[in-house]
Amino acid sequence: MELTTEQFIHDFEATLKEQKQITIADAIPEELFLALAKTTRQYYTPLWLDRKHALQKREDKIAFYFSVEFLPGRMLETNLLNLGILDTVKDAFTQLGVDFDAVKESEHDMALGNGGLGRLAAAFMDSLATTGYPGFGNGLRYRYGLFKQRIVNGYQVELPDSWFGSIGNVWETRKDHDIVYVSFFGNVYMTDAGDGKLKPVYNNAQVLRAVPYDVPQIGFGNGVVNNLRLWDVEIPEEYELNYPTIEDRRRVEDITAVLYPDDSTDEGKKLRLMQEYFMTSAGLQTIVKSYLKMGLPLERIYEKVSVHINDTHPAVAPAEFMRILVDDYGLEWDVAWEATCKTMSYTNHTILSEALEKWHTGLFSYVLPRVYQIIVEIDNRYISRMSAQGVDYETIENTRIVRNNQIHMAHLAIIGGHSVNGVAKLHTELLKEDTLRDFYKISPEKFNNKTNGIVQRRWTQIAAPHLSQTIDKWIGDGWRSDIHELRKLNDFVDNPDAQADFWQVKQESKQRLADYIEKTTGVHVNSQAIFDVQVKRLHAYKRQLLNVLHIIKLYWDIKDNPNADFTPRVFIFGAKAAPGYHFAKSVIKVINELANLINNDPAIGDKLKVVFLENYRVSLAELIIPAANVSEQISLASKEASGTSNMKFMMTGAVTLATLDGANIEIKQEVGDDNIVIFGMDKDAVYRHYESHDYYSRGIYESNPVIHRVVNSLVDGTIPNCQSEGNEIFDALITYNDEYFLLEDFQSYVDAQARIAQLYADRSRWMHMSLMNIANSDKFSSDDTIRQYAQEIWQLHLPQA
Ligand SMILES: *Cc1c(COP(=O)(O)O)cnc(C)c1O
């Protein structure tokens, strides 16, 4: 949009006066933020309305992305950038003498997600708007986002993240006219509806009100505003007498109180199931209602609507859709089933079996009695259909939905939809040949790959403005709207002046991070050192512990040979552990105690520093990632479905140190073998161990003196104050046979790390690598990923202008 600084200053001052009855000079950053956000709302609101009316008028097909997690982080800069007024606003603030950064930092991260999965959903919202496709989000409006992490005495402490704070969510709009009702519990029986059909009658159900709050998703430079709809729960007035105490009310409000802080297993099962059904049912009900307003036949709803199931949490969708079509609107089962399958599609995010959701039939039928009946019917019909097609008994048993009193949600999503995708090439291959191979045998046409992506704008233009200006200087600013133009940088990867410029920019980012580290942890780090970064959720498969073992080795190397050459390193960690994940929390404790030991040892000095930054989240990632020299992507091959932080690091010029896992393989293809450092077993080697059961970690420990000494350091008092955590980790590695093969990959990792040090010492070689990474990162734009979803899975069309 067109906006002069004068016009903006006028609007901003008026809003501030109206909202807070003060002038700029008297306002604190929070007040300035609120006024700026409200001013921004005035700018996008007409676009939002136009979009809604245009889509209604043209009756375009719309995709709805159902996800229990959305992790957008801060919205202010994205909204300003995408409206095309970020620079105008920054200029105006400079004129007004207001510190823009202080204002932007008073926005609380919108943290309605755990990690990569939620971040991907948020990226897709941005990219749908930016590409112009009609794609809306559907999720939950948690009052508390992911917990806030504090480190106390080296331990993780979890605090509630009351992100609404005193000002609420400034971006959302409550939509009372789209309220719907969702039922739980009670019992259901079928009666004759008089026309030969059976109709369900519900007794003693708990009916709750679902209230939508819409959050705008603004496209980059195109005036498009899509919708992210988040549902909140309320008790309908007519049922208030059922909830006489505060406790009774709270139990209901809990449905939208907290995001489950564990992205791999499910706790609080009943509440979790209620959350999943609540947002799925509310979303589907409003979708059907708004479709019917067009006056088109319900059985052809798939021509105007796609529903995407992001991981299994909304996988009850096919059954709930059947309930709506058959029970609420009277469609014949077979007609409804065809419409359902053509509407639904599903993304699988993991092959870790503990993360594939299953519900016990007892719990499920108690919470959702009618949906349970429908699932059983879907399952029975599936079995008959497969038997009739000659599918063998075992395959049917392995793929059916209800088995041994468990409801397999992934199976429901696959059977009730037309598309299943993995999130990186290797991951999709593993789904086909292992995790979901029986489904692949039956319906190979459903399977496809969509490698994850990142919103390049957030990780370059917003997180790394100086890097972006330097890119402009060398190749012009066309890359800002067409990411593929980044490839022009390939012409300059060996240009000494370009290398010097980009080196300088990286140094500035490192200094900014060094200042933050000193301010928040008191540790002084030298920005000339290699900044070696591993930031992601703490999980055994991601192998932060392998990084730790290597650091212990370096510690002994320096102690043994204080005069040897050593390229200084700063190891930077950021990671939240699920509150109930004991092992992961022990790793955090050990990292912090190891950091204490190393950072305070004068014999180590500036050669080695270890830093754990608390409360890793999107806004912190924006500070850390552009400052990295080395991107640690060291999961056990086959376990990381894709990874996306690997892409963010690549795009901002870090060199990837990685196993051949997830999208690391595709990064390697893009940058070439010489511009990435690969180590460790590949997926085939890992699977060979699984098949031959020949791994014996104690054997490695006993025969390799380096590993022996490093592992013993966990338990012999070398690292103080973590005896029990050290023992727990020792047991995982030695007594319980090292489930993620750290000891097997250790030597290869050490060698790769030595290679990193060697490469870094040769600055022009290093800058060649760094620039090759930036120049060839365009493949990982989520704009392109979403175009593939839109065209290949959802069959959307770009609205004609
Ligand atoms: C990108 C991102 C992730 C995902 O990181 P991976 O290393 O791919 O697991 C997690 N959390 C935040 C805050 C992120 O920005």
TrEMBL record:
<keyword id="KW-0328">Glycosyltransferase</keyword>
<dbReference type="GO" id="GO:0030170">
    <property type="term" value="F:pyridoxal phosphate binding"/>
</dbReference>
<dbReference type="GO" id="GO:0005980">
    <property type="term" value="P:glycogen catabolic process"/>
</dbReference>
<dbReference type="GO" id="GO:0008184">
    <property type="term" value="F:glycogen phosphorylase activity"/>
</dbReference>
<keyword id="KW-0119">Carbohydrate metabolism</keyword>
<comment type="function">
    <text>Allosteric enzyme that catalyzes the rate-limiting step in glycogen catabolism, the phosphorolytic cleavage of glycogen to produce glucose-1-phosphate, and plays a central role in maintaining cellular and organismal glucose homeostasis.</text>
</comment>
<feature type="modified residue" description="N6-(pyridoxal phosphate)lysine">
    <location>
        <position position="648"/>
    </location>
</feature>
<dbReference type="InterPro" id="IPR000811">
    <property type="entry name" value="Glyco_trans_35"/>
</dbReference>
<comment type="similarity">
    <text>Belongs to the glycogen phosphorylase family.</text>
</comment>
<dbReference type="GO" id="GO:0005737">
    <property type="term" value="C:cytoplasm"/>
</dbReference>
<dbReference type="Pfam" id="PF00343">
    <property type="entry name" value="Phosphorylase"/>
</dbReference>
<comment type="function">
    <text>Phosphorylase is an important allosteric enzyme in carbohydrate metabolism. Enzymes from different sources differ in their regulatory mechanisms and in their natural substrates. However, all known phosphorylases share catalytic and structural properties.</text>
</comment>
<keyword id="KW-0663">Pyridoxal phosphate</keyword>
<keyword id="KW-0021">Allosteric enzyme</keyword>
<dbReference type="InterPro" id="IPR011833">
    <property type="entry name" value="Glycg_phsphrylas"/>
</dbReference>
<protein>
    <recommendedName>
        <fullName>Alpha-1,4 glucan phosphorylase</fullName>
        <ecNumber>2.4.1.1</ecNumber>
    </recommendedName>
</protein>
<keyword id="KW-0808">Transferase</keyword>
